[in-house]
Amino acid sequence: MSVPSGATGRWLVIGADGMLGRDLVAILTATGRPITAAGRRRLDITDPDAVRAAVQGHELVINAAAWTDVDGAEQQETTATRVNGTGVAHLAESCAATGARLMHVSTDYVFAGDATEPYPEHAPTAPVNAYGRSKLAGERAVLARLPEHGYVVRTAWLYATHGRNFVRTVLRLAAEREHLDVVDDQVGQPTWSYLLAGRLVELAGAAVASRAPAGIYHGTCTGQTSWYGLARAVFTLAGLDPERIRPVGSDRFPRPARRPAYSVLAHQRWAAAGLPPLPHWQDALTAALTDRRSATEATPPAVIPG
Question: What is 11-290's CATH topology?
Answer without folding.
Answer: Rossmann fold (3.40.50)
